[in-house]
Specification:
The structure holds 2 protein chains of 2 kinds. By secondary structure, chain A is mainly α. Chain A is built from 9 helices and no strands. In chain A, helix 3 runs antiparallel to helix 7. The N terminus of chain A is likely disordered. Chain B is of the alpha+beta class. Chain B is built from 2 helices and 4 strands, in the order H-H-E-E-E-E. Chain B has a 4-stranded antiparallel β-sheet, with helices on one face. The longest helix of chain B is centred in the first third of the chain and has 14 residues. The termini of chain B are far apart. The chains are: A mainly alpha, B alpha+beta. At the A-B interface, helix 2, helix 3 and helix 6 of A face helix 2 of B.
Chain lengths: 186, 84
């Protein structure tokens, strides 16, 4: 049984102290955001060959964001996580989700309000997963939930044009994040 | 000496952090994330207030003339609403 904090991307912004941090930074929204050096070394790229093409966030157009809402991630099969684990088709090396969380919180490629908006989306997704699980609807809604997750991930990756290493690591860790998100209990 | 200079330049370029996003760009991106058209990369006429519940309210004008209100609740939820 995974602890609650292991909820995938929800790690990024769900904790109270993270929220407070963002809220504190928000109060200084008028001041220029200081660049924060990301001291962490990049995680190993197990599948460097399939790095996705990431467009510049500064040139992200509404149409692209809309497409991200509906278009599933390439090479991602809509399978139950159990099957993916057994088949090992999307098995990735152990990814440090906590480190990814910190990097996402600290990246300068995304502004404070955008981070909060993403956090809201993640929390909504997490709440819906918990609600579906409670009503035993999760299996029937799995495809819809996965599409929402893929869309959200695409949005985040599109915004991380200024931090391509993080974008790539996030893409590499997508299955771990997905499985971790599904492991969150109500 | 020339190689030291070039190496230093490459090192600086490599270690340059991601360029910080300005609040105007940040708000425009937030509006885009919610599926609204902003017509540009940054907003103008940003106005911050608070409602009776203590939620932060930000109003801004997009390059296409649309004015939006972004409400940030105490628990960090973000809602975007067009004003015109």
């Amino acid at each position: 049984m995974r602890p609650l904090w292991m909820g995938g991307l929800a790690l990024v912004f769900v904790t109270g102290c993270a929220c407070k941090q963002e809220m504190d930074v928000m109060h200084d929204a008028d001041k220029p955001v200081t660049a924060i050096m990301s001291p962490e070394s990049t995680a190993p790229a197990p599948d460097s060959g399939d790095k996705p093409a990431v467009r510049s966030a500064k040139h992200v157009k509404p149409a692209e964001l809309k497409a991200a809402n509906t278009k599933p991630l390439p090479e991602v099969a809509h399978k139950a996580p159990g099957k993916a684990r057994i088949q090992g088709e999307h098995s990735t090396p152990k990814i440090n989700l906590a480190m990814l969380t910190e990097r996402l919180k600290n990246t300068d490629a995304i502004g404070v309000f955008t981070k909060l908006a993403i956090r809201s989306d993640i929390m909504d997704l997490k709440d819906d997963i918990a609600r579906y699980r409670q009503k035993s609807l999760l299996q029937s809604k799995m495809k819809e939930v996965r599409e929402r997750f893929d869309g959200l991930l695409l949005k985040i990756m599109a915004l991380l044009d200024g931090d391509p290493d993080l974008s790539h690591d996030l893409y590499s860790a997508r299955e771990s994040i997905w499985e971790s998100l599904l492991g969150v209990k109500a | 000496m020339k190689y030291i200079g070039i190496s230093a330049l490459l090192l600086c370029a490599w270690s340059t952090p991601a360029q910080a996003v300005t609040p105007a760009e940040d708000i425009a991106t937030t509006i885009l994330l919610r599926g609204y058209d902003c017509g540009g990369k940054q907003v103008s006429a940003i106005k911050e207030t608070q409602d009776a519940s203590g939620n932060k309210i930000i109003q801004a004008t997009c390059p296409n003339g649309m004015r939006y209100e972004i409400k940030i609740t105490a628990d960090g939820r973000v809602k975007v609403k067009p004003l015109n």
